[in-house]
Inverse folding.
């Protein structure tokens, strides 16, 4: 059934690279805060940097839980599910950090991802636990297509509109934690 891995193997890399969707889980440090799970799509938004590091392009969205949680606790789990005939679930546990567009390493990281008009940050996850499980109860489904609605929305926004949106929707988590650098 389940197995632990010391690093990302070629088979695990293929499984991750073929996934059309993955899930990001984060939580604040305190017991009172909300645990957050976010679906992420766009097959060109997640990249394996090495055998123990992955990164994904975090696009401007309707909330900022992940950024706020990572800035406070740095804990993150990514989950990948097989929706094909061969069942499998893969979880990557680690310590994350946010790389914002004004960071020195932004330029070296952004080239790993596809072109998207509204990047907010790049989440870099250093893995300390890699585990799979059976996935026997995950349904088998067929991908129809990726959605491009977020990119289309971003293309219609001016820089001023994006800044206003981020100030309104992306400044703090629902628990009041700061999400954007001061």
């Amino acid at each position: 059934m389940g197995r632990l891995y010391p690093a990302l193997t070629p088979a695990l890399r293929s499984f991750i690279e073929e996934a059309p969707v993955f899930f990001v889980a984060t939580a604040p440090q305190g017991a009172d805060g909300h645990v957050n799970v976010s679906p992420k799509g766009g097959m060109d938004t997640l990249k394996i940097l090495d055998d123990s590091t992955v990164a994904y392009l975090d696009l401007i969205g309707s909330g900022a839980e992940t950024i706020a949680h990572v800035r406070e606790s740095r804990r993150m789990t990514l989950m990948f599910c097989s929706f094909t005939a061969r069942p499998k679930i893969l979880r990557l546990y680690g310590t994350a950090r946010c790389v914002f567009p004004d960071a020195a390493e932004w330029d070296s990281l952004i080239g790993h991802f596809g072109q998207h008009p509204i990047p907010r940050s790049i989440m870099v996850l250093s893995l300390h636990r890699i585990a799979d499980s059976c996935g026997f109860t995950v349904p088998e489904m067929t991908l129809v297509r990726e959605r491009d609605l977020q990119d289309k929305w971003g293309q219609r926004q001016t820089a001023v509109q994006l800044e206003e949106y981020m100030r309104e929707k992306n400044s703090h988590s629902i628990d009041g934690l700061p999400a954007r650098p001061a």
